[in-house]
Amino acid sequence: MPLISPSRRLRRTPFSEGVEAAGVKGYTVYNHMLLPTFFASVEEDYHHLKEAVQVWDVACERQVELRGPDAARLMQMLTPRDLRGMLPGRCFYVPIVDETGGMLNDPVAVKLAEDRWWISIADSDLMFWVKGIASGYRLDVLIDEPDVSPLAVQGPRSDDLMARVFGEAVRDIKFFRFGMFDFQGRSLVVARSGYSKQGGFEIYVEGSDLGMPLWNALMEAGRDLDVRAGCPNGIERVEGGLLSYGNDMTDDNTPHECGLGRFCDTQTAIGCMGRDALLRVAKEGPVQQIRAIDIGGAAVPPCDRAWPIMSGTKKIGQVTSAAWSPDFKTNVAIGMVRMTHWDDGTSVRVETSQGPRDAVVREAFWA
Ligand code: THG
């Protein structure tokens, strides 16, 4: 691969200096920002993530802030998930759809207060949609991208590392909830969440100036825990069935196709964007859905385009993420599969970029 040329458009993060000092070897672009993809190798990083603790620069999970009297109303207009029971201090994984029910993003909504929310976005320019709706409906709400950059601490030793930097009380944070914790006299949102199934936290670093001091404090405090710089791991997240917007789903897919129907309360989310379309798809049911795919044979090449899933000469789906799993000793993959072939155990063929492979559709992911 040729290099990616740096420029102002390709934003660095408050942690890039630490990431580069730690020897980052690959970057991708996410929300117009650098996102590391591996440090030692994807496989070495994977083993270390499952055994120890890593600090991840996920500043590319940008925040869309809603502030003002209509913030809660706007947030409920944006998602079919029922937010009525959501108290401040909670995080919700929320599908966001357009007027046809197509997925625009799958962010984490963070409720700071009734009149203040962060939408922690996946890789699409969601703020334009949010601003368009707010201005079209003349809502009394300010929308912007604040100087807030998530730093994730992931892996089985996360609690021990975080307790050293933020105090023992971080151990009491429950899954998808957050508390306010002090670092160098500043109060930061610390949530138990993150893009891995290994457990951990996300610190929403408010103020870029705190980026490197916090990065360094975590690295120093975790020396004897073998803390390392890491990043969302392409093997671990497929094992865990964590979806990637733009890869595993696009605006061509409904939440129900993505297996996110459990986050849609379309009957009660009155007035949300795409409600009529979603009521239809919820009633009829999807005709294709995300599945785990077990691809046989040796390690597959990187999945940088959709690979057709075939049954005989008929295309019945596509694989959108795949990687060799050292723990499961097979290629783990995520794909969209038509109803006729989505039952557990169905044999199919995947046309990878290096030729066809036998594969099996699975109901459940591996983790
Ligand atoms: N954390 C934060 N922001 C993010 C991500 C994140 N923005 C971008 C991207 N990741 C959004 N996508 C996801 C996908 C999955 C999850 C979170 C964000 C996730 N899913 C859990 C699961 O599927 O097991 C839990 C979902 C639930 O039960 O609520 O964590 O990672 N800040």
Structure description:
It is a single chain. The chain is α+β, with helices and mostly antiparallel strands and about 375 residues long. The chain has three domains: about 15-60 and about 145-240, 2-Layer Sandwich (Gyrase A, domain 2); about 65-130, 2-Layer Sandwich (Alpha-Beta Plaits); about 285-365, Elongation Factor Tu (Ef-tu), domain 3 (Beta Barrel). About 20% of the residues lie in helices and about 30% in strands. It has helices at about 15-20, 40-50, 70-80, 125-135, 160-165, 210-220, 235-240, 275-285, and strands at about 25-30, 35-40, 55, 65, 90-95, 95, 105, 110-115, 115-120, 140-145, 150-155, 180-185, 185-190, 200-205, 230, 290-295, 305-310, 315-325, 330-340, 345-350, 355-360. The strands form five sheets. Strands 12-13-14-11-3-15 form a six-stranded mixed sheet, with helices on both faces. Strands 16-19-18-17-20-21 form a six-stranded antiparallel β-barrel. Strand 12 (about 180-185) and strand 13 form a beta hairpin. The model has no long low-confidence stretch (mean pLDDT about 100). Bound molecules: (6S)-5,6,7,8-tetrahydrofolate. (6S)-5,6,7,8-tetrahydrofolate binds near residues 108, 121, 150, 176 and 202. (6S)-5,6,7,8-tetrahydrofolate binds near residues 61, 107 and 202.
Summarize the structure.
The protein is of the alpha+beta class and about 375 residues long.
Bound molecule kinds, no repeats: (6S)-5,6,7,8-tetrahydrofolate
Examine the coordinates and then state which fold CATH places here, giving the name of the CATH topology of the largest domain. Answer: Gyrase A, domain 2
Number of strands: 21
Query: Could you tell me how far the N terminus lies from the C terminus, measured between alpha carbons in angstroms?
Result: 32 Å
Provide the succession of SSEs. Answer: HEEHEEHEEEEEHEEHEEEHEHHEEEEEE
Biggest sheet descriptor: 6 strands, mixed
The parts where pLDDT drops under 50 for at least 5 residues are none
CATH-scheme architecture of the largest domain:
2-Layer Sandwich
Cα-atom radius of gyration:
21 Å
Q: Specify the CATH class of the largest domain.
A: Alpha Beta
CATH superfamily of the largest domain: Probable tRNA modification gtpase trme, domain 1
Overall outline: globular
Largest sheet: spatial strand order: 12-13-14-11-3-15
Number of contiguous helices: 8
Q: State the domain count.
A: 3
- What structural class is derived from the secondary structure elements? alpha+beta
